[in-house]
Amino acid sequence: MPGLPMNDPPPERLAAVLARAAGDVVAVTRVAALSGGAASATYAVDAVRNGTPWSLILQCAAAGDVADGALPKADQAALQRLAGRHGIPVAEVVAVLHPDDGMGQGFIMARVAGEALAPKWLKGDGFAAARAALTGQCAQVLARLHAIPIAEVAGLALPAGRTGEARMRMFAHYRSFGVNSPVFDLAFAWLAERCGDAEPDAIVHGDFRSGNFIIDEYGLAAVLDWELAHLGEGAEDLGWLCANAWRFGIWQKPVGGFGERDALYDTYAAAGGARVDRARAHMWEVWGTLRWGLACLQLGHDHVSGRVRSVERAAIGRRVSEVELDLLHLIRFGDI
Amino acid sequence: MSEQIEAAALVEAVAAFLQSIEGELSGRNAFHAKVAGNALGIVARELAQAPRVAEQAALSAYLGHDAGLDALRAELCGRLRAGQLTPETPGLLLALSEAVMAKVAVDNPRYATLARVRDA
Predict the structure, then answer these.
(1) Same-domain check for residues A81 and A182
(2) Residue B2 falls within a domain, yes or no?
(3) Partner-chain contact B96 A249, CB within 8 Å
(4) How many structural domains compose chain B?
(5) A201-224 CB burial, b ≥16 within 10 A, e <16
(6) Fewer C-beta neighbours within 10 Å, C or N terminus of chain A?
(7) Does residue A149 contact residue A274 with C-beta atoms inside 8 Å?
(8) Domain containing residue A324
(9) Residue B67 sits in the same domain as residue B90
(10) Domain range holding B16?
(11) Does residue A63 register a pLDDT over 90?
């Protein structure tokens, strides 16, 4: 499978890591690849601890180490633990891989019961109550996350930068593909007039969207994938959650395909978050939509460049036009 | 017809073949076969609709001169980067919408935003 390390992690090495962490006798009975992203590989790990089944998830850097400037896996695990201490639903981190373990960077966490496939919980009858609760739960989680003093993550290598720098980095990323998209350039010009150049003042999850939740019958059971966390402006997470790409076709519900913006913003403010300025939130929706467009370009480039040859990535490259149309709709009508 | 088997007929034949083996595939291969079938749908629509011609017409009408599509795109991008064109420039958003609608009609004709922009 593309994107995964050459060899799957050996069960006996994982068992040793788990035994060290648990101070107990642990056997690993199964290691199954779940998904291979560009940056991370995720495995389901079935273990037995003192005769009791133990369902776990291993996430490790696809290339052994994370890319330069990216959040190291040990720091991602530490951030996930910190979020949990602040009352945010996350998978409990069980063990962090050590360089001597010979499996690169990674960590092992509890496997949270529930549905991870967004189209299933967005459309399934059994999740109606969960969907009804979810907008408020997302708002509360984000308000809590953004209220954490950034001094608490001073020891973690979270990427940080002013808003203007982040926009210029995104523009350089776009230009690196050698593709000319008038709509993307229009969106960059639109953002340049509006995004400002604020100092980062909050921990931003960075990938808070419908595809990164575990949903059970009561709603949000866990927030996954903290690998894109960084220091920035909290409203970035609100905008990303509302990008059309994460509504999975349920475009009438702007919050992730399940909720309304007013409910999200009101609950966020009631839970201690900043009162959301509509123009600012709209700016972050344009930003997030453009960011997804660059991800489509990146995936298409993976195929064209030969880095990861894949019919799936080639096809996603053709989703650039959807993003262009969403950007035009957002900029023309102030909404999507 | 100058060819017995034109490109569109080949695409259709390959798509039909992929569909015929769908039941024998599972997991990742089944998923990739579905993606491949959708990709062939894009190719078939691109052959039938020639979206580059429509995009070129929209962009050259806006810029007021003829050129190849790649040159027109590059000119627009360059002028946007230089600040000579802005999101407020009259007619620009409409011209880009025309151009992009032709592309989305090929890449994903059922995309909801396409109908929304058409009806706007």
Answers:
(1) no
(2) no
(3) no
(4) 2
(5) ebbbbbbbbbebbbbbeebbbbbb
(6) N
(7) no
(8) 118-333
(9) yes
(10) 7-49
(11) no
User: DSSP class of residue A40?
Assistant: E
d(Cα A107, Cα A247) in Å, to the nearest integer?
30
Residue ranges in chain B assigned as alpha helix (H): 7-21, 27-49, 51-63, 69-81, 92-107, 112-119
Domain count, chain A: 2
Would you say residue A5 has pLDDT above 50?
no
- Residues B22, B32 within the same domain: yes
B68 and B109 share one domain: yes
Question: With a threshold of 0.90, does the pTM exceed it?
Answer: yes
Nearest residue of A to residue B36, measured between CA atoms: A311
Q: Tell whether A133 and A86 lie within a shared domain.
A: no
Q: Are residues B60 and B37 in the same domain?
A: no
Mean pLDDT on A304-311: 91
How far, rounded to the nearest angstrom, does the alpha carbon of residue A336 sit from its chain's CA centroid? Answer: 22
Q: Which of A323, A238, A230, A231 is nearest to A279 (CA)?
A: A238
The residues facing A110 across adjacent strands are A56
Residues of B in contact with A244 (CB under 8 A): 113
Q: Which residues of A touch B73 (CB under 8 A)?
A: 180-182
pLDDT value, residue B120: 82
| ipTM score | 0.96
What pLDDT does residue A38 have? Answer: 62
CA distance A14 to A26: 9
- Which CATH number is A84's domain given? 3.30.200
pLDDT digits (tens, 9 = 90+) for B20-72: 999 999 888 999 999 999 999 999 999 999 999 999 999 999 999 999 999 99
Residue B92 lies in a domain: yes
Check CB contact under 8 Å for B103 and A331.
Answer: no
Q: For A53, left (φ over 0), alpha (ψ -120 to 50), or beta?
A: beta
- How distant is the alpha carbon of residue A310 from its chain centre? 22
The mean predicted confidence, pLDDT, of chain A is 94
Residues of B whose CB is below 8 A from A318 = 39, 42, 107-108
CATH label of the domain that carries residue A297? 3.90.1200.10
Q: Is the pLDDT of residue A2 over 90?
A: no
Q: How far is B13 from chain A (nearest CA, A)?
A: 18
- Say if residue B18 is in the same domain as residue B74: no
Q: Which A-chain residues 106-145 have CB contacts (< 8 A) with chain B?
A: none
Alpha-carbon distance of A21 to A15, in angstroms, equals 10
Name the one residue in this structure whose structure tokens are 């009804």: A132
Residue A282's closest CA among A209, A190, A182?
A190
pLDDT in tens, A182-222: 999 999 999 999 999 999 999 999 999 999 999 999 999 99
